[in-house]
Amino acid sequence: QVQLVESGGGLVQAGGSLRLSCAASGRTFSNYAMGWFRQAPGREREFVADISWRGGSTYYADSVKGRFTISRDNAKNTVYLQMNSLKPEDTAVYYCAADRHRVRVTTTPDYWGQGTQVTVSS
Hints:
By secondary structure, this protein is mainly beta. It has strands at about 5, 10-15, 20-25, 35-40, 45-50, 60, 70-75, 80-85, 90-100, 110, 115-120.
């Protein structure tokens, strides 16, 4: 069993930065691919970024490529999402996810966090 708790969300002006964290419980964190998804009001949840179990591979949605960076620290059981050059369209609830697939987070990950709100004002 893995429990995920996100933090770091908040209100920021366009062009600003935020860093989200997702702390995982359990001893098997390093066995999971980890990812970030987001859901804006009235829209479906969408993929943002993911990172393989050892951190060797990362993938990004085109909409965030070059602005967001995903990383992980397996010693701290934590995955991060550094978000720079934020835009109003990045406003959403951001969710952390864990997947036993190890390389990629699939569309049906094994575990979800509760989400953290990110609001970007124009």
